[in-house]
Amino acid sequence: MCRCLTTSINHCELQAQNGMALERTSNSFHWADYVILVLSLLISCSVGIYFALSGGKQKTTAEYLMGDRSMRLVPVSVSLVASFLSAILILGHPAEIYLNGIGFHFHLLGVTVAYVLSAVLFVRLFYPLRLTSVFEYLDKRFNSKLARCIGTILSLILMPETWIGGQLAQSKTKSVEQSSTVTNNAVRREYVIAACGIIGTFYTLLGGMKAVVWVDAIQAGIMLIGVLSVAIKAVVDSGGLASVWQLNMDYDRIQLPSWTLDPRERHSMWGMVLGSAVYWLSSIGVSQAAVQRLCSLPSMKSARMSLVLGLAGHFLMVSACTLVGMAVFSRYASVGCDIHAAGWADTNQIITYYVMERMNVPGFPGLFTSALLAAALSSVSSSLSSASTIAWTDLLRPYACKNLTEGQATVTAKVLVALFGLIGIAIAYLAAQLGGTIIQAVSTFLGAIIGPSLGLILLASLFPSANWFGASISPFAGVAFGIWIGAGSYANKKQLVKLAANVTGCNTLAAGSFAATNSSETEVYDYYSSTTSSAVGTEKGRHFGFVEPMPVREDLLLPGVAKLWRLCGCSGNLLLPPPADDSENIAKQTELSLNADIGKTDPLDIHLQIVEATKL
C-alpha cells in the first residue's frame, strides 16, 4: 500500500491511472543529441579562433593575459559566475537538495557576505595596484620574492583540484560522464576528459583572456538554459509549484539548518554562513582567476559593479538548481518511487536519470549534457589562464626570462597554457583510474590549501606588523591544520541527513517507505577546513610578524585598517601612500618641502628646484 499524501497530486491515483508501477528507464542518446554536443564544442573553438585573428591578435602579454585591461562589464561578470560554478553545481547541488533537503541552499548567505566584502574591500585594495598576478601584491607588501613564490606555488598546486573536480571524481558529483550509466555509455569518460582538455586548451591558447571570458559568457547561457528547462519540466510533472512545495514539506525536505557548532553536522547555520563566506571569499575575493578578471576591467567602478552582477547571477544559478532538486524529488515522490532509494540511480545520476526518463526528446539530452560540458570547460579554461599567468608573471619573468622581447614573452605564455593543459589531461586520466577513496584523499589535501591562501592575503592586508618571515611560515601551519581537519572527516564521518523515501511505486524487489541513508558528497568539511586553516595561518603569521616589524604603506592594507591601527596607538610602522604620479603633485610636494627655507633661499633657486623635481 503506497503512502498517500494530501497534495494537489495524489501519487496513488497516478499509479492507478498508469495501471503499473514505475519502470526503470532504458532510454539512450539520439543522433540529434550528438549533433548538439558537437555544435556546442565548436562554438567554443570558434571564439578562440576569432580573438586570435582580431584586435591585436594576442601579440602582447597585456592583451593575452589581461585583455588590454579594457574588458566589458557584462561578459566579465558572467565569467566570474561561470568560472566558479562548475558541473558540481548542476549535478551535485540538486542531488543534495533531493536527498537532504534545502538546508544547503542557505550557503547563499555566506556567498553574499563574500561578494560584498570583495566589492567593498578587496577590489579597492587590488585594483589601484594594477596587478597581473595577485601574488605581486605579496611582493609589494613584504618586499619578499619568497613570500610571492610561496603564494604562487600554493595556487599552482590547486590546479589539479579543478581538473578532478570538473571532469571525473567518481566518488563525487563532479563530472558529466556520470550520465553514461543511464545513457548506455553514450558519453564515455575518456571522451569527456579528452574533449574538455583539448578544447579548453585550444581556445585558451589561441584567444587568451578575451576568449576565456567570452566563452564563459556563452557557456553560462547554455548552463542556465539546460538547468531552467529541467526545472520547468519537473515542476510541470509534479503538478505545479504548490505541489512541489507540499511534497517536499511532507517528506521533511523543508527544514532550516540548525545553529549547532558541531562540524560533523551536515547542515548548520554557522557552517552555511561563516564557512561558506570564507570559502567563497578565497574564490571571489583573492583568487588569481577573480583578481585577473576584475583588474582586466577599465575602472574600479566597473570592477565593483561586476561583483554586484556576479552575485545576482550566482543567486540565479544556485536557486534554479535548488528548484531542480525539489521538483525532481516531488515528481518521484508523487508516483511513490524514489529512484535513489530503489537503487536505480546513485547520487551522481539522479538528475541525468530524470532527464533521460522524462525529457528524452531528440536533442534535449544532448543540450543538457552540453550544459555539463560547458560547466566543466569554464572551470578548465579559467584554471589554464590563471596558472599560465602566475607562472609567467611570478616565476619566469622575474628570473629566467628577464630579457625576452614582448613577442617572445607572449609565445612563452602560450606555451605555458599548452603545458598546463597536457598536465591537466594527464591528471584527469590518472584520477579516472584511481578509486574514489584515493580521489577524496587528494581532494581533501588540495582543499586544505584554499584556507591558507586566503590567510596569507589577510595577514598581509590586516596586520601592519607582519613581515616576510611570518608570511613565509604561516601557509605551512595553515595547510597542516587543514589536513588535520580533513583527516578528522574520515575518523568521524559526516552525519547524514536521513529523510523519508518511498519505493512502493517502483517495479523492484524493494518495497515500503523507509528512511534512506544517502551518500551525497557535498563537502561540509571543506568549509570548516578552509575557515580554520585560514585563521590558523593568519594568526601564526601575525605572531612571527612581531619579531621584526617593517614599514608598510597604507595603500597596501585593506581600506580603513590603517585608521583602526592608529586609533589603537599602533601606527609606528605605517607610511603614507606614494603621491600620484603626475607633475602637478610632484611640484606641489616639492614646494611644500621647501617652505621652511623660504626666508633663507632665493625664490629663483626654489623655482629651479621645483622645475627639476617635475622633470624627474
Automatic annotation (TrEMBL):
Compartments (UniProt record): Cell membrane
Membrane topology listed for this record: Multi-pass membrane protein
Keywords: Cell membrane, Ion transport, Membrane, Sodium, Sodium transport, Transmembrane, Transmembrane helix, Transport
GO biological process, one term: sodium ion transport
Membrane-spanning segments: 34-53, 73-92, 104-126, 191-215, 222-247, 267-286, 307-329, 413-432, 438-459, 466-487
Superkingdom of the organism of origin: Eukaryota
Any one annotated GO CC term: plasma membrane
Pfam families: SSF
Any one GO molecular-function label of the UniProt entry: symporter activity
Similarity comment: Belongs to the sodium:solute symporter (SSF) (TC 2.A.21) family.
PANTHER family: LD47995P-RELATED, SODIUM-COUPLED MONOCARBOXYLATE TRANSPORTER
Protein name (record): Sodium-coupled monocarboxylate transporter 1
Native source species: Macrostomum lignano
